Amino acid sequence: MARLPRKSVKKSKILLVALSIALFGGAAYIHAQSLSEAAQSHREKLLAELRELEQAMESVQSLIDNKRGEAASLERDIAIFDAQIKKAKLEIRAIDLTIQTLQGKISSKEETIDEIVAKVDREKLSLAESLRKLWELDDVSIFEAMLSHERISDYFGDIE
Predict the structure, then answer these.
(1) Which domain holds residue 91?
(2) Cβ neighbourhood burial of 53 (10 Å; 0-12, 13-18, 19+)
(3) Is residue 139 part of a domain?
(4) Gyration radius from the chain CA atoms
(5) DSSP H helical segments within the chain, as ranges?
């Protein structure tokens, strides 16, 4: 039985490591966020499909290995090429699933960013209003401010 070229094995290992990191490396971030049930279900479906694709890739790789072990013939070469094409298509589908998963994570992060930006904008407005009131109070002497209100407690209410 012939061995796979090192380059092919190395590419396969790199692809599996990259997919594993992309899919499972962000698990801590996903856990920290509250995903809707639909998004979680979609993610689980994608992961299940990815596992199926990985199993299919392994079986196709086994077929490639078996065909390489057979006597050299045109039919064997065609079968090897067909299996390699099928494996490449499966790898492309696995990458597409990874991209879809990452797009979902990106959308979630964008929503979080939008919420934070809105909160910062509200806090800026509140700070600006507080500074404006403080500035107005500094322009008026304490006696003028106290006399401009009917009750002293109203003056202290404006300070807050």
Answers:
(1) 6-110
(2) buried
(3) no
(4) 32
(5) 6-24, 27-32, 37-69, 74-139, 142-147, 152-159
pTM for the structure as a whole: 0.41
Taken in order 6, 11, 12, 13, the sign of the CA dihedral is positive
Is 75 among the domain residues? yes
Q: How many domains does the chain have?
A: 1
Indicate the range of 48-52, 79-83, 87-91, 154-158 predicted with least confidence. Answer: 154-158
- In sequence order, what are the residues at sequence separation of 6 or more whose Cβ sits closer than 8 angstroms to the Cβ of residue 30? 43, 105
How far CA 84 is from CA of 8, 53, 87, 93, in Å, comes to 11, 14, 5, 14
The predicted structure's pLDDT at residue 28? 44
